[in-house]
Amino acid sequence: MSAASFQSEINEIPHKFSKLLFDVEKLKKPEKIASTYHITSGERILGYIKSTVPLFTLTVDGTVITDRAIYIHPSHDDWAASNRFPFDEICKYFVYMDDEKSNVYMSDIHSKSIIRGCTLFGRNTGGIELMQFVKALQAILLSHYTWAQEQQQTAVAELLTAARASMKTGRVSQELSVLLNTIEPSSPQYLAVKLVQAEDVYRSCDADAYHRFMENTTAEAKAAIMQQQNPFEKALQADLSNIHLNFETNYLTEAYTNLSASPYRSDMDTLLFAYVCVRLDKKVDYTNSCRQVKSDDAKQALEAFSACYYNIRIRFRPC
After folding, report:
1. From CA 152, how far away is CA 102, in angstroms rounded?
2. How far apart are alpha carbons 63 and 49 in whole angstroms?
3. How far apart are CA 191 and CA 305, in angstroms?
4. How far apart are alpha carbons 135 and 138 in whole angstroms?
5. Residue 121 in contact with residue 133, Cβ under 8 Å?
6. 12-34 residue pLDDT tens
7. What is the CB-side half-sphere exposure of residue 275 using CA atoms within 13 A?
8. Residue 183 in 3-state DSSP?
9. What is the SS3 assignment for 97?
10. Which of 91, 103, 108 is nearest to 130 (CA)?
11. String of b and e for 151-173 (b: at least 16 CB within 10 Å)?
């Protein structure tokens, strides 16, 4: 990893921005700006974005880009642990916006920072351009440096691990889903991300949602997912039948609703529905679905789980 200037890499980015400006020669009192933003000695200011408030100068609010980091105004101490985001660590993070007016976030699974505030009215052009700048710089660093590739690989691996853990007893959390959606098709981990997303949608037991997901997936990813569909089924069955796992009620209700509404249930769907009914204490639905399970071994395992789960529920039911 290099602590040197990244000016040459920044110069590779086409400066076709309207709010992110690089005419630093027009800045008044650059020394005061450096002091206000606590810019590290030796760094050169290369660009900036003024405040969304028209009358505010850069010393009052804004974003500053040096040859080594992004700086947010220190007054926004509730946005991040530090107002400095160094470029030699930038590939550890996922950058995104919720919509065209929102904050710009730089996050990993451990923290969530804001590097540009939202706009109340109209498009957050400065935020969009800052996000585009960061993504462009990340792409350049990833193409040039092994340390940048290692940072991204570690970040995505941690994200995938967290997402798999999140859907073990429910669905992938909204926060993790947002980060998964930031992974570009050019990423070496893109297929792994699509597999996790596909399994998450499959676990909703919503056949229409799964079909829509597959329709919007690249051919390469779709082929990889099709090879894993049977393991998806077996993994969900194994988790639902694991007496030691406590599923989220919201997830079970979602799965129950979707399977109940399905005009056709496969043998596997019927088995999954039966396990969901046990966990939700839907006795009538459980009895009916249990009768429809064709495999004797699967039915015996289901009945054993039902009896054990019922005993545990009775034992820990409040008096």
Report:
1. 24
2. 5
3. 35
4. 5
5. no
6. 999 899 999 999 988 888 999 99
7. 26
8. coil
9. strand
10. 103
11. bbeebbeebbebbbebbeebbbe
Contact 159, 27 (CB under 8 A): no
| Residue 301 to residues 240, 246, 257, 268, Cα–Cα distance (Å) | 12, 18, 24, 14
To which residue do tokens 């947010």 refer? 72
* Residue partners of 262: CB distance under 8 A and separation at least 6: 205, 207, 269
Taking alpha carbons only, the member of 27, 34, 28 closest to residue 73 is 34
For 217, how many CA atoms within 13 A lie in the half-sphere containing its CB? 24
Cβ–Cβ < 8 Å for 21, 48:
yes
- 103 is written with which tokens? 């904050």
CA distance 84 to 74: 9
Which region among 53-62, 105-114, 159-168, 248-257 has the lowest average model confidence (pLDDT)? 53-62
Give the span between the Cα atoms of 66 and 21, in whole angstroms: 12
Distance between CA atoms of residues 78 and 113, nearest Å = 9
Region of 295 on the Ramachandran plot (φ > 0 left; ψ -120 to 50 alpha; else beta): beta
Instruction: Measure the CA–CA gap between 66 and 268, rounded to whole angstroms.
Output: 57
Q: Which two tokens stand for residue 30?
A: 């650059």
301's tokens: 């395992």
Length of the chain counted residue by residue: 319
What's the token pair of residue 199? 């399994």
**314 — pLDDT class (breaks 50, 70, 90):** low
Q: Determine contact, residues 48/65, Cβ cutoff 8 Å.
A: yes
Both structure tokens of 120: 């109340």
Where does the chain have alpha helices with state H?
A: 7-11, 30-36, 125-144, 146-166, 174-180, 190-202, 207-215, 219-240, 249-261, 267-280, 283-292, 296-315
Tokens representing residue 274 in the block: 């039966």
